[in-house]
Amino acid sequence: MTKSKTYDILDNFFKLDMRVKKIENLLLLNESQNNLSLSERCKSSYSKSELAILFYILMDEGLLFFDPADVKKNRISFQEFVSENFTYRNNEGVQKKVTRISREFSECKGYTYKDKQIKFLDDFIGILMERKRKLENW
Question: What CA–CA distance (Å, rounded) separates 75 from 91?
Fold first, then answer.
């Protein structure tokens, strides 16, 4: 093998090594941004399903909205908002990012899960009533 060919091989190897290092740095940066974004999200003591019920009720009753004229767009915007800004408590009590919440929103729309919604509302109303009592006695 000639010296020139050996230099070309070494040069290509170092270029490849630099590219691999750049990719590794990007992956590390992405990983640290993911960890940072989890800490910047609003944490919830609710499960993913309960969080969906809360936001679905607020949306469905028109208390909060992105686009009141377009129901489909409003729902999509709500799902994206929750997914990008909230965490939920999983079964082990650990905070997890909400990645997709469309299934849970769909469950809120149907009557199959109405008992689950009624229980959530009873618990939520209890919290609000306790809050009202505290304010009245203040």
Answer: 26
Instruction: Please answer whether residues 79 and 107 qualify as being in contact, where contact means their C-beta atoms are separated by less than 8 angstroms.
Output: no
Per-residue HEC secondary structure of the chain comes to CCHHHHHHHHHHHHHHHHHHHHHHHHHHHHHHHHHHHHHHCECCCCCHHHHHHHHHHHHHCCCCCCCCCCHHHHHHHHHHHHHHHEEEECCCCCEEECCCCHHHHHHHHCHHHHHHHHHHHHHHHHHHHHHHHHHHCC
State residue 37's pLDDT score: 57
pLDDT score of 15 more than 80: no
